[in-house]
Amino acid sequence: MENGKxxxxxxxxxxxxxxxxxxxxxxxxxxxxxxTSKLGxxxxxxxxxxxxxxxxxxLNIWRIIVVSGKKAQTIANELxxxxxxxxxxxxxxxxxxxxxxxxxxxxxxxxxxxxxSPENGAIIGGAIALIIxxxxxxxxxxxxxxxxxxVVKVLLIIFIVAVSAPPFGQAAVHTFFPSHIDFxxxxxxxxxxxxxxxxxxGGHRLLEGGLRGKKSIRYINEGALTGIGVxxxxxxxxxxxxxxxxxxxxxxxxxxxxxxxFQSAAxxxxxKFFGLILFAAGMTSTLGSTFTxxxxxxxxxxxxxNDGFQRIRPYLIIxxxxxxxxxxxxxxxxxxxxxxxGAINGLIxxxxxxxxxxxxxxxxxxxxxxxxxxxxxxxxxxxxxxMAYAGVQSLITGFSSLF
Length: 403
What we know:
By secondary structure, this protein is mostly helical. It has 16 helices and no strands. The N and C termini lie far apart (63 Å). 56% of the residues are buried.
């Protein structure tokens, strides 16, 4: 493989794992455990919808961003002045809130593994994240760290599924023919694993790696499909593990439902495994959330480096991680907030995707020689309509429950 192609492939794989591991962080672990406990095998339908939405969202957003050679906020501003700033506010606030849970996940992972307090573990995790971002060749170090932790995470979850003996037949039937459809669970799991900053992490990483224009479409597809595949495997495996535990009649601890899955499946050994998975999930999601949220503060319009932004970028990263760590240290882990923010990100998703789909029709944004594939456009608008409808339904349900 030529050096240029090898570099492009490595960037694509870095983007793939950054997106995939951002999608299956501590929030995902919490959401999957909580909703499987509530809905049982019917939650498989939400997982299926999540995977289908993931395909339509990631292939659309990655392609539009990279072909245009512009970050999402710049595209939005060129479509309608000021729209990019609104998108930035939505993404950064969501990313910052999620990051409190992410860094908390690292702290809780250290607590399970070594017995130190979650607060002190979060400080150690924040320090590790800062070191990764501030060393030389930070993006390459970030890519390698995320890929290594991804392998650890997948292998550990495969082990838990193997020892828990999930009811595959029941899961398959209810995944395609659910007895009950819960829109709130769909909006939350999609928002928590596809929406918000997550849907832009891969595309922005490709731009940072120097990929742009129609010539990069091959690497866009390779990266997006690899990331979707890795995230989907983890989604399905964790759902199966949770379903196995619940089918056996074990009640999950509402304070830490995800830990209950691993402890029930493999005792103390499984609980320690959970600590390692939580550390991996929290660290990779912290890196993904920080990288993507900070990238939304860069409004450069071309291939030229924004020197002013590059000078302040390290300070923005430091603020983002230190602020998240401090909030967790003094307030605690917002488990319920992680689920709520997932729902909010699910509402942001149709807005963000609609903006980019409209932008894909503007030659002044994507270039004269590019035509966005019709099937991607149709799939994208179906997702926009479905997620908007599901979001409204979940709001109605949540509002009704208050009275």
